[in-house]
Design goal:
This protein is mainly alpha-helical and 199 residues long. It has two domains: 3-99, no CATH class; 112-183, no CATH class. The chain has helices spanning 3-17, 20-30, 38-42, 45-53, 72-81, 88-99, 155-165, 180-183, and strands at residues 112-113, 120-122, 147-148, 153-154. Strands 1-2 form a two-stranded antiparallel sheet. A two-stranded antiparallel sheet has the order 3-4. β3 (147-148) and β4 form a beta hairpin. α1 (3-17) packs across α5 (72-81). The two termini are 31 Å apart. Residues 176-199 are annotated as: Disordered. This is Cysteine-rich CPCC protein. Residues 113-178 form the Cysteine-rich CPCC domain. Pfam families: Cys_rich_CPCC.
Length: 199
């Protein structure tokens, strides 16, 4: 099975469990999908026109029906984005319960190492991507003692926090993926020592 097929199966299962309010939040957050991206061009033309008409979000013209099937392609694109760079062993584990042991072919998209935790979760350095493993917002700096405005701390402080609690800060703990290190494989790059939660 290819990575694309595996991710599609996982996304279909996740979509089936989403509540309408979850769908609404996803649509609001993902509405401004980059128009040069591959996922955008996979969307139906009618949906792309709607996205261009209401550039700031679907709620510009009032409430929308987030349960409508016309938004399913955008919801799937949003859910698929969570698996960018995720290792095949994680996808296999996710499918094991419903599809048994499957072999997945293809490689994850190469990502950049987060300067805080070292896991490869960043699509492009300095683009203010937020690491799903430690919740560091990448401002492009690798300088340990430089104060990072988006993170409200220095990189060295964030690294120390990650080593001790598994997130860049106490407040970030509620945002990190509990299975983040497993999703992105290990060991992380030499930027930081990995956090290990107790068994």
């Amino acid at each position: 099975m290819t990575r694309d097929e595996a991710i599609s199966m996982i996304v279909d299962a996740e979509l089936a469990t989403l509540r309408v309010e979850d769908k609404s939040n996803i649509l609001q957050n993902f509405w401004t999908l980059h128009k040069d991206g591959e996922e955008y061009h996979r969307l139906p033309e009618e949906l792309r026109r709607e996205m261009e008409t209401f550039e700031e979000g679907p709620f510009d013209a009032g409430p929308i029906d987030a349960a409508s099937s016309r938004y399913v392609p955008l919801l799937k694109a949003a859910l698929r984005s969570k698996y960018l760079g995720v290792v095949n062993s994680y996808l296999q584990k996710r499918l094991r319960g419903t599809h048994g042991n499957v072999e997945i072919t293809g490689s994850p998209k190469p990502l950049m190492a987060c300067p805080c935790c070292g896991y490869r979760t960043i699509e492009s350095r300095g683009g203010y991507d937020i690491c799903e493993v430690c919740f560091w917002e990448d401002d492009g700096s690798d300088e340990p003692h430089h104060y990072s405005s988006p993170n409200r701390m220095t990189l060295i402080d964030a690294k120390q926090n990650f080593q001790s609690i598994g997130a860049m800060s106490e407040a970030a703990l509620k945002h990190v993926l509990p299975d983040g290190p497993e999703r992105y494989g290990g060991p992380p790059s030499s930027t930081s020592r990995p956090y290990s939660s107790p068994p």
